[in-house]
Amino acid sequence: MFRKILIANRGEIACRVIDTCRRMGVGTVAVYSDADARARHVAMADEAVWIGGARPAESYLRADAIIAAAQATGAEAIHPGYGFLSENPEFVEAVEAAGLVFIGPSAAAIRAMGLKDAAKALMEEAGVPVVPGYHGANQDPEHLAGAADAIGYPVLIKAVAGGGGKGMRRVDAPERFMEALESAKGEAATAFGNDAVLIEKYVEKPRHIEVQVFGDGARAVHLFERDCSLQRRHQKVIEEAPAPGMTAEMRAAMGQAAVRAAEAIGYSGAGTVEFIVDGARGLRPDGFWFMEMNTRLQVEHPVTEAITGVDLVEWQLRVAAGEDLPLRQDELAIDGHAFEARLYAEDVPKGFLPATGVLRHLRFPEGARAETGVRAGDEISPWYDPMIAKIIVYGPTRAVALRKLDAALAGCQVAGSVTNLGFLRALAGHAGFAAGDVDTGLIERDLAGLAAVPVASSRVRALAAMGALGLTGEAGPVEGFTLWAPLRRSVMLRGEGEGFAVAVEVLPGGAARVTLGDVAQEVVRDGAGWRVDGAPVAAEVVALEGSVAVFHGDGHVFEVVDPLAVAAAAGGGAGRIEAPMPGLVKAVFVGPGDAVSAGDRLAVLEAMKMEHALTAGRDGIVAEVLVEAGAQVEAGAALIVLEEGEP
Length: 647
What we know:
Blueprint: E1 4-7, H1 11-24, E2 27-33, H2 40-44, E3 47-52, H3 63-73, E4 77-79, H4 89-97, E5 101-102, H5 107-114, H6 116-125, E6 133-134, H7 141-151, E7 155-163, E8 166-171, H8 177-192, E9 197-201, E10 206-216, E11 220-232, E12 235-241, H9 248-264, E13 268-278, E14 288-294, H10 301-308, H11 312-320, E15 337-344, E16 346-347, E17 353-354, E18 357-358, E19 361-363, E20 369-372, E21 379-380, E22 387-395, H12 398-410, E23 413-415, H13 421-428, H14 431-434, H15 442-445, H16 447-450, H17 458-468, E24 481-482, E25 485-486, E26 488-495, E27 498-506, E28 512-516, E29 519-526, E30 529-532, E31 535-537, E32 540-544, E33 547-552, E34 554-561, E35 576-578, E36 583-588, E37 595-596, E38 601-607, E39 610-615, E40 620-625, E41 632-633, E42 638-643
Helix pairs in contact: 4-5, 12-13
């Protein structure tokens, strides 16, 4: 076994690898950028080496700096995590040329699966079913359009070198094909440096089911399946294992196909074979097709660990160190059910835009596995993926595990950035999801309800007022009296799109009368917790600088308004196009004097390697263009100004 390894990654996956290394007695070396100097993974590792600037290209994508750090610290091997250089065959070769061990598959195996079109051809040769489509080299737009016509709409345009939903577009009709193709190619070129695409038949009720495989370079085993059908913008939101509705016959067929795929390329280490499954008529052995293979550890690997009792990172280390596969196929079995929810800093009502901010309060629930790379006080920066944590739960049955998932999400406390926590809770409580009736279109169909922002009740607002005034402790019997009258104070709060005034009057015995509009409630905090009008309220109130958070199933954060502050004038409205997040202006499509209609694309902003179209909120004339392509802008920066006019 290795004495010391370097982890060529950051965030929660670096912390996850360190956890296993600690248990195994393996020393760890972290690498970090300027933005991550005080990051959790740096604090956890035995050693840490600075490798460059905040941009990934200046740090986590610098193979030379990472290898030099491993050599300087005496590390014997490099664990790539996922993302960054984890599926870069040139990095694997450079690691091995430096006399180090790459904890993962060979460069040849990564190359074999790196391009989707070549991988599909290889899988056909290995007897693995593939989706009907065009995977050829001819990238002429007219040829691709003809291929789409032959396959039959709807079709899916996918970047050949893609992943994470980047460079992927669904097209429902021929007249929309060319615009979607141009957009997909542009995003693919930005994310991967390769704008080649393939065309596939779009399965009408698709499920995304993947199989965890593990190989030693000669033979492989599978550790059963995960269902990752709950997706938005082709990115996974909640994953589970095993897949609901799975039959023993289909599980065996998918597992055997995944093992054939791994053994066909001499795979070593942890990998995932992803299948698109036709869920229209139930799960059938003839209704699944190969999509791609991820030649690395997956974000959602903990659900497989939960139902098999296997530590996949330990297996990675052991096999990379020259040991045999720890278990045979007949020694692996499924026990129970597990879910993983991805908690992100993102603005759900604004289309899941990535968010930033300082995590001023952060607490995870007991009874759940929380994998995270951040702590309270850490900043969610614009440079990297805005994941806060993965929340994993396990139960003996799917129903029990789902109840535990809802309880775990209700117990998460985050303040300092907007998150998708309310969305995750709504999804966990979705009737179709609870019944196991899942497919990749579920979220999109019910997005309006799932993305609705939870509205704080009057009880929650009353507790927020108590927190804003510092009245969160147990009160004494005479607290609150000034001379002969009860102390009465008021506070202005703003949250959930509105401001409101609350009056708080402390009563004899330590209770308080909290008045909001026409509603008055009696609030008291005693040894048992909060009570409102005599009823217990399981809530936690956290006072922050300039705001107060109330965690009561959902989290609600209210700004404490300075009564002397002058209300700022509303900025520009629909006539002012602002950057919804920090990012790079990829393109500007209009100039001063141009007439535009509501919904027209005005510019494209790139953030987190994704492209976001900025559109006109109303008809008008472009008065000013304040940026040009290539400019880096902050959230809220004015980009384009419209004036009234006929398009």
